[in-house]
Structure to design on (685 residues):
């Protein structure tokens, strides 16, 4: 196994990740030599942690809070010497250092971000927006960098590019492209980083001093979050910490790293020592998101393509593609938040999206009743409780829901009794239709071996049962002026695990089509926890949650073992993981495998969603992940698209992806999985 770890697959760089650090040095009120030592110490620490880019606070070299001392030649000379010292110290270090310093040029002083790498000063970016209100007096000392393009500056013995038109890009690591702005810049209505992102920067950095006030940390968080989302980028924010003058202000050292509107990492506030916040950014996900979002390109065109206005300063990152782990939490369940607060909020929204979608369809169809097949499994259970809530909100009696349990050749007493218990608890109109006589007749008419007493349980045997159930439901809907409520979920659609046409693939309205299997169990738990129904119903729901997932189409074997869905198509928790990253983000299968390994290789690492049973906390090695990913790719791209191309209406629920051909996913029904399987084979050890 140790040998395998040397394979390029195990390197985060191979999958377009970039390791960044937000530095909080112990500052001073003008002790520039001490500031340089702190800068170098954190640079070495960042090097040891494998960082590619380190972002420091605003004016960390010369100090922010020295007021009129910024204009003293002694301070300016010491700053230049400190930058030379930092540059020399960086010669054998891996990361690019983005430090803050006040630099003179052409009779003006600029508040600057200075990019340094392996002994070379790459370039200098002046601050555009200078605050001059309330406690801020920056225009007293500094000039704005607005409109300064195509210029250079002499600093620390080097002549380097200078201006607000700089983007920095690694020539040997295509996803390492960053832009710098300074503090007030991102408080402006149009931050410079917007143009930087539109010009191609994947990572936008903010060197900030930003004194702390009550509530200001929340505003910084909101702005950083919003900018990473709106500009489709990663955003690294770093504020000054301990040591800056507290004559009139205080400092909290808040650092945070966002990506596409999601918080990747945040620091502790009010540190008493230097600190380094490290996280890996998924630049490939950012690149993919920009390709998928046409508005991003439209915005660039509306601004006359900012990429023509920027200079790209290139450097060699010299990645070694070693396995240094992944500094990032990868959710095992991409559709399910780990934090209780977000889980509750998402479940509330998902459940109500389903309910409101069904209400509209009931009204539009002028349906008097809802018709639903109730198996006692997860999907039909969730569809039924959604239907019950819809009728409650319409002010109709729940007995206008016609629920049917339709036992077949392999229906267990446990699921059937749960189906009946749920229908009684909810107060709907329940009934039972034994499909075995009709199934026997059909199998006999077809001269199927089962009709001759032979234990042949092939796809025909299974689909005769699935088709009959659907046929009954549609005819019952005709009879009662009803609407057939579909129960199949997003996971089954991704895998094609449903019977096409006259089968469970079809309904009048598919309320679960936008909800993956892994989310459905949490939606049911949320309904229990928030008292959506009475105690009797909750008891039944708890029992259903404890069952193994099975289609119950094939009789149990001699050993009593029943048909298991996941033993045939793979664990739903892995399949939902694969579907999310392939459908929503278009990631290469090898990268999906890498992420799955990081998420699932150790059951004891990382977080689990609330209420997830300890006994169900699985771990998967790379061999297992590869096995099921290959099967997923074949099922998804080859055998199941024709079923998705003809799915009934149903609401999109999650931003994590949907499969309706009228929404998120369009693909040929006669496609191939070969490019995906080839990519996986070529890039896994």
């Amino acid at each position: 196994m140790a040998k395998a770890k040397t394979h390029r697959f195990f390197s985060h760089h191979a999958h377009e990740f970039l390791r960044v650090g937000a530095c909080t040095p112990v500052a001073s009120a003008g002790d520039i030599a001490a500031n340089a030592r702190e800068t170098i110490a954190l640079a070495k620490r960042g090097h040891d942690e494998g960082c590619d880019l380190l972002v420091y606070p605003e004016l960390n070299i010369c100090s922010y809070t020295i007021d009129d001392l910024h204009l003293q030649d002694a301070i300016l000379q010491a700053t230049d010497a400190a930058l030379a010292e930092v540059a020399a110290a960086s010669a054998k270090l891996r990361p690019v250092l983005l430090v803050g310093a006040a630099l003179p040029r052409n009779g003006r002083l600029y508040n600057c971000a200075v990019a340094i790498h392996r002994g070379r000063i790459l370039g200098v970016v002046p601050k555009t927006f200078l605050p001059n209100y309330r406690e801020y007096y920056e225009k007293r000392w500094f000039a704005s960098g607005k409109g300064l393009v195509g210029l250079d500056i002499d600093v620390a013995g080097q002549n380097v590019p200078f201006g607000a038109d700089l983007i920095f890009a690694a020539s040997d690591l295509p996803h390492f492209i960053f832009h710098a702005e300074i503090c007030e810049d991102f408080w402006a209505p149009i931050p410079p980083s917007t143009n930087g992102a539109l010009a191609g920067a994947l990572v936008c950095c903010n060197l900030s001093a930003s004194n702390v006030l009550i509530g200001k940390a929340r505003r910084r968080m909101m702005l950083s979050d919003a900018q990473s989302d709106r500009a489709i980028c990663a955003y690294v924010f770093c504020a000054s910490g301990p040591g800056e003058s507290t004559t009139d202000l205080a400092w909290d050292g808040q650092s945070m790293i966002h990506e596409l509107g999601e918080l990747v990492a945040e620091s502790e506030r009010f540190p008493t020592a230097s600190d380094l916040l490290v996280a890996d950014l998924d630049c490939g996900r950012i690149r993919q998101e920009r390709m998928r979002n046409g508005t991003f390109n439209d915005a660039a065109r509306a601004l006359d393509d900012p990429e023509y206005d920027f200079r790209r300063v290139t450097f060699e990152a010299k990645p070694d593609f070693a396995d240094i782990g992944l500094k990032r939490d990868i959710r095992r369940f991409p559709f399910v938040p780990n934090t209780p607060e977000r889980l509750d909020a998402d479940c509330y929204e998902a459940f109500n999206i389903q309910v409101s979608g069904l209400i509209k369809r009931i009204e539009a169809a002028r349906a008097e009743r809802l018709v639903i097949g109730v198996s006692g499994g997860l999907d039909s259970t969730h569809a039924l409780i959604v239907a019950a809530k819809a009728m409650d909100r319409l002010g109709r009696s729940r007995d206008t829901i016609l629920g049917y349990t339709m036992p077949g050749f392999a229906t267990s007493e446990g699921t059937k009794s749960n189906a009946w218990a749920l229908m009684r608890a909810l107060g709907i109109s329940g009934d039972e239709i034994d499909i075995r006589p009709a199934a026997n007749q059909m199998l006999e008419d077809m001269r199927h071996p089962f009709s001759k007493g032979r234990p042949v349980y092939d796809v025909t045997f299974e689909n005769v049962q699935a088709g009959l159930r659907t046929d009954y439901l549609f005819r019952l809907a005709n009879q009662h002026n009803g609407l057939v409520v579909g129960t199949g979920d997003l996971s089954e659609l991704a895998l094609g695990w449903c019977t096409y046409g006259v089968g469970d693939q079809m309904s009048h309205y598919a309320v679960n089509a936008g909800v993956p299997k892994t989310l459905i169990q949490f939606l049911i738990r949320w309904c229990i926890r928030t008292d959506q129904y009475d105690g009797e119903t909750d008891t039944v729901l708890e029992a259903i949650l404890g069952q193994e997932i099975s289609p119950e189409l094939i009789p149990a074997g001699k050993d009593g073992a029943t048909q298991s869905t996941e033993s045939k198509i793979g664990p739903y928790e892995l399949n939902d993981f694969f579907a999310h990253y392939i459908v929503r983000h278009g990631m290469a299968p090898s990268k999906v495998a890498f992420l799955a390994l990081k998420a699932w290789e150790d059951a004891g690492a990382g977080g689990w969603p609330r209420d997830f049973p300890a006994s169900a906390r699985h771990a998967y090695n790379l061999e297992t992940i590869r096995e099921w990913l290959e099967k997923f790719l074949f099922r998804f791209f080859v055998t199941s698209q024709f079923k998705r191309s003809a799915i009934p209406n149903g609401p999109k629920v999650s931003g994590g992806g949907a499969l309706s051909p009228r929404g998120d996913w369009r693909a040929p029904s006669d496609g191939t999985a070969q490019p995906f399987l080839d990519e996986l084979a070529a890039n896994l050890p």
User: Anything to note?
Assistant: The two ends are 11 Å apart (CA to CA). Residues 340-365 form the longest helix (26 residues).
